[in-house]
Amino acid sequence: MILRLIGPRLHGWLDDLVVLVYLAGAFAFGLRGAALAIAIGGAIVHFLLTRFTNYPQGTFKLIPFRVHAFIELGEGLAVLAASLAFAADRPLAQRLFLGAMGVSQLGAFALSDYGPGPPTPPRSAAAA
Fold it and tell me: Among 6, 25, 39, 88, which is most exposed with the fewest C-beta within 10 angstroms?
C-alpha cells in the first residue's frame, strides 16, 4: 500500500507460500504449545483469506482485495503480539520465526498494490 511493488497475481502466489512457510516452519523449529497454535492459526487464517479473496489466486472471490489488505495487516499484528505474549518462554529461534512471520505480513501490506488509492484532486489553475 505504501510502495505498490507487488501486484495481485504475485501477492496471491506469495500468500500460498506463506501458508507453506507457517506449516513447514512450525515443524522445522519444533514448535509446541502456544507457539504451535500461533503458527497453525496464522496458516489457517492465511489459507482461508487466500481462498476467499477476489484476486487471481482466490477461489471463491468474496472478499475485496483491499479488505484482504487490512485483514492481512491485522494478522501480522496479531501474530507479533501473540508471539510476544504467549511464546516468550520458547527458544529464541522459535520466537524469531514467529516474529518474522508477523513482520512478513506487515511487509506485504506495505509493498502490495491493493488497487487504486483515493482519487487525487485535480490541480486548479491558481495553484500552478
Answer: 88
